[in-house]
Amino acid sequence: MEYLHEIKELLVRPKDIVITTHRNPDGDAIGASLAMYHYLCELGHTVRVICPSDYPDFLEWMPGVQEIIIFDTEPEYSKELVERADIIFFLDFNALDRIDKLGELIAPLSCTKIMIDHHLYPENCSDYLISDTLASSTCELIYDFIDRMGERHKIDTVIAESIFTGILTDTGSFTYSTSPKLFRTVAELIEMGVDDYKLQDLIFNSMQEKHLRLLGHCLNRRLEILEEYKTGIITLTKEDYERFDIQRGDTEGIVNYLLKLRNVKLAAFITEQPTIVKLSLRSKGDFSVQEIAKKYFKGGGHKNASGGYSFQSLRATVKKFKDVLPEYGEKLRG
Q1: What is the largest CA-CA distance in the chain?
Q2: Contacting residues for 142 by C-beta, under 8 A, at least 6 apart
Q3: Which residues in 15-122 belong to E strands, given as ranges?
């Protein structure tokens, strides 16, 4: 990691530090933020975690999560914290527009900014960049960061569980973005005290009844298969959101069910939000959804997992997505 010695020097004396991550934070975003939070607190710093929006309910068990400040509900306090920060860490995002209005506040500040991320094409908005697009998750990079700081002994069970949570969720329970290095890291985390069965249970077996009913609705009423392009689509309307009282995090993982089908290579989960239509794209094997997200839906992400959005209606967005498929027909059929 470049500049590590400079960052280590910055952290020698206690400082006011803010950690921030992207809107609609997932397990990797919260896991990375809390792992870094606990680590920096151990070093004697005054640390605050600020998220642009709230975290999903299935992460409520994580130590320190109740200390997270939500910009949407506490904008003035968030502004006060970032303006007095000596250092701001950007975790699990590659551009300031991923943190919305919080990014507008941070951009002109003269404090030191450190980005740790694994997404493609990081924006030039930080003083120090630690980036590896081959990493499974930002949490894997946090582990490497602490290790290369010579502080592996400071990774206690709480920090290890936070890191494991991000790895587990961003790899889909070790389904994609894996590597021999990742499994060596996971083995070390378990040796440090992580109870992997307990975490699997906390993260994946905490559904409410409405979550299971919503999944059934998606698979029974909102599923479309385009056999010619080995593509599956699930859509949700505003009415669906009202009917099932869908809150942030309630739709986590639904898109992955499409990839359980033998003849599906590309999966799209397209949802009608209050002001935009969101797309979550997943794929199998060598087919990259990152290009589709970036080229047509103002988004991006990873080869097999990307997202984007549209200001058109749900119907128009679905049509646009379908119209794009012939361009990739040969690759999808291959």
Answers
A1: 61
A2: 32, 35, 36, 39, 91, 116, 163, 166
A3: 16-21, 46-51, 69-70, 87-91, 112-117
Q: What is the DSSP secondary-structure string of 300-314?
A: EE-SSEEEEEESS-H
Lookup: tokens for 141? 């990079």
* Helices and strands: H and E segment counts in the chain: 13, 12
* Percent of the chain clearing pLDDT 90 (strictly above): 90
Closest CA to 314 of 272, 251, 255, 269: 272
The residue whose two tokens read 């839906």 is: 297
Note the pTM of the prediction, 2 decimals.
0.89
pLDDT digits (tens, 9 = 90+) for 251-293: 988 999 999 999 999 999 999 999 999 999 999 999 999 999 9
For residue 176, the model assigns a pLDDT of 82
* Amino acid (one-letter) located at 308: G
- Residue 106's Cβ-count burial label (10 Å; 0-12, 13-18, 19+) is buried
Say what the pLDDT of residue 2 is.
Answer: 64
Q: How far apart are CA 214 and CA 234, in angstroms?
A: 12
Residue 275 φ/ψ, nearest 5 degrees: -125, -15
Query: Of 63, 64, 28, whose CA–CA distance to 49 is shortest?
Result: 64
